[in-house]
Please model this.
Amino acid sequence: MPRAGLDPVSVVAAGAALADEVGLAGLTMGRLAERLGVRTPSLYKHVVGQEDLNRRIAVLALNEAADAVGAAVQGYAGRDALAAAARAFRAFVVEHPGRYAATIGVEPSGPDDPLASAGQRLLAAFTAVLRGYEIPGPDVDHALRLLRSLCHGFATLQAGNAFQWSADVDESFEWLIAFADRGLRTL
Model:
């Protein structure tokens, strides 16, 4: 009999919160069970195992990031949309480094996998940003990869406390946005 109050959604939410605290590598079924006040076997009523938990956290993270970026770009176009999307994505990654880490390297098992639709939602938010630029159709995928690389790289480095020199991190990020905007406008 599952413990009252526990279900797959609450287990995944607790796992995501714990991953944000201790890092994805530090998230274990035992540690999560301890956090939830249950024995480890109780978790297997809600998730298949560690890999399933991590995949579900990845789906949660992609959907949350898509919500954040999508809401941020509403009503904006061009550089303003780019800046809003980049800032929202960066804030999400910095605030949720463990759950975001779950999204890296995980692949959908097929088109019906919730991971695929969550990833598509985030991709659609960034694709909307690109509509404000005159990017030829064949170059859209390259532009999306550019934006992902820039935003992902900066945000994960910041989340890992890798920017320890004196220059202001926010100022550097605004420089990155201006650089990306200039590049996208020249295509």
